[in-house]
Design brief:
By secondary structure, this protein is α+β, with helices and mostly antiparallel strands. It folds into two domains: 5-89, 2-Layer Sandwich (Alpha-Beta Plaits); 114-239, Dinitrogenase iron-molybdenum cofactor biosynthesis domain (Nucleotidyltransferase, domain 5, 2-Layer Sandwich), CATH 3.30.420. The chain contains eight helices and eleven strands. The strands form four sheets. It has a five-stranded mixed sheet with strand order 9-8-7-10-11. The protein has a two-stranded antiparallel ribbon with strand order 1-2. β10 (190-193), α6 and β11 form a beta-alpha-beta unit. α5 crosses α6. Mean pLDDT is 88; it is low at 167-176 and 240-244.
Length: 245
């Protein structure tokens, strides 16, 4: 199966080479929907005819994660032996990569503390274009930009596991909903979006973030315009029409 880029590998290992995903015992599954609505990686689907959950995207599962088995009060979900992941980490020298990633993260934090970089968050469903629905976006492209040279120091895609909308779970809007978004991109200085509810707009703004509401749809183009100081910003014409995102 063709995997989205964000799931294509884990710690440098092609995801297809990692035999790790949940198994559902249909005899024990009651169709409660806990796994379907709580997993943030779209691993599960729901069989409307039989009223059972099923593993729709096994390779979307985060290697080593067993959270869904804990959520299942009927013990219908199982995983391979956890020793498999430990052996994989040793065989593939994952710890070495983890140390390199940690070093990079610490350097990134230092640059930010010294005020040398700015982090930009852009809601996106595909990593290329700006999502039209801020709160329902599948994730955020986060770009770390060096202020003096405008060089991109780091780029990552953060899957949106922090808002209920993104998981298909209805959640009341308000401080709790906004706080989840704020915490998910709380290390960012700038947010570029196509639309945003007035409530979350004011909430992020009060947290010290600079918000750009733009008609630009291409992320690369939006970043170029931001760097050149030409990125359009028209919050009043869009925010008032999207009270809930």
């Amino acid at each position: 199966m063709s995997l989205p880029a964000k799931y294509a590998e884990w710690k440098g290992i092609p995801r297809e080479e990692i035999d790790w995903h949940p198994y559902i015992d249909p005899e024990k599954c009651t169709g409660c929907g806990m796994c379907v609505t709580t997993c943030g990686r779209e691993v599960f689907g729901y069989d409307e005819e039989n009223h059972k959950a099923f593993v729709a995207n096994p390779l979307y599962c985060l290697p080593g994660c067993t959270s869904c088995s804990l959520w299942c009060v009927f013990d219908a979900i199982t995983f391979p032996d956890k020793q498999y992941i430990k052996n994989l980490i040793k065989e593939k020298k994952v710890l070495l990569l983890a140390k390199q990633q940690l070093k990079k993260k610490r350097e990134e934090k230092k640059r930010k503390e010294e005020g040398k970089t700015v982090k930009i968050a852009v809601p996106s469903d595909d990593g290329k274009t700006i999502s039209h629905h801020f709160g329902r976006t599948k994730g955020f492209v986060v770009i770390e930009l060096e202020k003096e040279s405008n060089e991109i120091k780091n780029r990552e895609y953060r899957t949106n596991t922090f808002t209920g909308h993104a998981r298909g779970v209805e959640r009341k809007h308000g401080e709790g909903h906004h706080r989840a978004i704020r915490e998910g991109i709380g290390d960012c200085d700038v947010v570029i979006a196509n639309s945003m509810g007035s409530g979350v707009y004011e909430d992020l703004k009060s947290a010290g973030m600079k918000i750009f509401i733009t008609d630009e749809s291409d992320i690369e183009r939006a970043i170029e315009l931001y760097i050149s100081g030409k990125l359009s910003d028209n919050p009043l014409s869009t925010c008032e029409h999207h009270h809930h995102d």
